[in-house]
Receptor-like serine/threonine-protein kinase (Punica granatum), 792 residues
Amino acid sequence: MASTTLTVLLLLPLLPFAIPAQAQSNITLGSSLIADDRNSSWKSSSGDFAFGFQRIGNRGFLLAIWFDKIPEKTVIWFANGDKLAPQGSKVDLTRTGSLVLSDHKGEQLWARGTGTGVSHAAILDTGNFVLADQTGSNLWESFNEPSDTIMPTQVLDQDTKIVSRYSAMNYSRGRFELSLQSKDGNLNMHTRPVYDDAYWYTSQGYGYQLIFNRTGPIYLAAKNGSVVYTMMSGTVSSTNYQRAVLEYDGVFRQYVYPKDASLSSGRSMGWSPVASPVPSNICTSMRQSIGAGTCGWNSYCILGDNQRPKCRCPLGYSYMDPSDEMNGCKPDFLPQSCDKAMLETDLFRINEMINTDWPLSDYERYDNVDEDFCAQVCLSDCLCDVAIIRDGTCWKKKMPLSNGKMDPSVGGKALIKVSKDNSTLNIPPAGSKKDKNRPMIIVGSVILSSSAALNLILILLILLIWFRFNHDKKPETVHGHPINRFSSMLSFTYEELRVATGGFTEELGKGAFGVVYKGVLTSNERSLIAVKVLEKITSEGDREFKNEMSTIGRTNHRNLVELIGFCEEGQHRILVYDFMPNGSLADFLFGGSRPSWFKRIEIACGVARSLLYLHEESSKQIIHCDIKPQNILLDECLTAKISDFGLAKLLMTGQTRTMTVVRGTKGYLAPEWFRSLPISVKVDVYSFGIVLLELICCRKNCEFGLKDEAQMILSDWVYDCYHKEELGLIVDGDEEMIGDMKRVRRFVMIAMWCIQEDPSLRPSMKKVAQMLDGAVEVSVPPEPASFISSLQ
């Protein structure tokens, strides 16, 4: 009791209610903002916050409040996440004091107002947007209608909730919700819409308000002001920005961001967590009886080193949507037939996964059995998709599998039933011969029952259509390939792209084959684009164009840049890509301040997953051949996306190596390029290893102007530091890395394996991705080839 009283006494002076009067810039009635690329906004008096429109990729505009002085422009509140506003939309502070968002046609998309008494609006230096009367009293405020974030001085009352967004850049309402219950005074976190099945909650009761203190602590207070429960206990200096957010993975986290690099006390210039997340392990916390769990149906959740859940598919399964790993998984094979005459038991096998379970999907149980028995009863049961064996007990489970998790606390082993060979599967007959002929009988009956005149007209019409499409009209082609092969992409004329780029004036970058320009398509919802004009219309340039068309047109992954369309008109060969607003990884790593270590981890894992997709999961195996920071672009939330498939070599089915001319960029090229050796996917593994070292050290792989010659070649220097157990030298005082040296060492070891001189010693990208995630142990690597010897 004394401890609680002391806590209350310490915190009471810090309560957010006694806030100094804020100078504010009032927004007059009748003011408005337009959603366009001018980025006009209303700012707080300090300039820390802005209210206005943020472009969300190419999908539209979000009416939002954000931190305006940091490069990320992090959103803390938004109005229209479920329905983005098109370009030309407007937000009005009407003469009657209402805040109204309408599209370019005048259709109202969102509105708030009190109906009377509003004299002005303001965006305060707390990030709160208010509609106020002449006395300064707030009649409406954004703090009372939070989105997914709460801010210092903000109070969450009973029955107020915050809802996660759907994904990092999808602001529609997601699957998770945090609310303070009025019925019992407890704070609950639950999935939507299953409100009575919390995956995290307080049990003390008596909670009246959730308070975010301006000095950092976030706590649940009773009606008398006493502290019932402390959710986040960290103390934060006033030299940092703060926010706390229920993220799209269902975890509540508190972050800080240095306001000034000179006052950052060694902290990197980026958002850094300041307290343990809630819950600390959502993978094991999620036990809901209804719904898919953290990661969606048929997937499993594994906690990463940074306490972020990673959603993975079981062996033999793949993501429902490669761009959304939390959307569940699907089997990559046809299900086992339940026809007793063709059970196909011999066509299936068992994949094993330790410490993995889907605890709520079982339908049958066996006690006092061994693993072999458990595997066999699943193989012989057409309804069984997975069996779990733990301590002599076997559970059979069937799809959809829910609440999957992999964690040492789970124990046991999952036995996943998968097809041995998809090509040998017997597809069950759809029905008898009589059933198959039934559609023909029906069609024949209809025709015979129709009048002869109607049938004659129908026949003539069919002949006319056939003749028109097969004789009168020659199919439009792209170098002999029908254009409908690229039906998922857009075809542009040269004039359309000339107008879109303003005459090809704003250059974004230049490569070996052409220049990339920024453009705007005003007539298409994909507004901002990157236009790559191939300059060398030689056979080599033509090959790049065809290569990019055939390669990117077949790919679909969240870590690959999307090809929107193309132009092949006369001598013009142009590719149109989705615009990446944060430039390249080279700009991010080498452009100034040292980026967050945890963001670099995410980028490394994203690049690894995209290469795994290209090498093993796309319809055709693809070698990129030019992996380097300049070809890794960053979207709005700094998600890494591989670009420039112009040098990629598309391998045909069954082909694992190919001979080709030297491609790529020196410094990232594997030794086999210079030795006329067969080229395989292992050249990308080598290039990734160099990029991984650059991500670890935030410097280029070759810097010949350094005073210390031993540091000039990054790979040689890092290996020396690793071998001498002096990895502290490479972190350069980075506090995030210093606190995560176990992973730093693991990443260095992975990079050393990737850059082995012998391609057969390099791991596959699948194993690289597993090692980065911590799912596979990393053995001690041999010394890699030196930079000079790799060129010989």
User: Anything to note?
Assistant: Residues 452-472 form the longest helix (21 residues). Residues 1-21, 422-453, 469-487, 649-654 have pLDDT under 50 and may be disordered. Residues 255 and 272 are 5 Å apart (CA to CA). The longest strand covers residues 170-180.
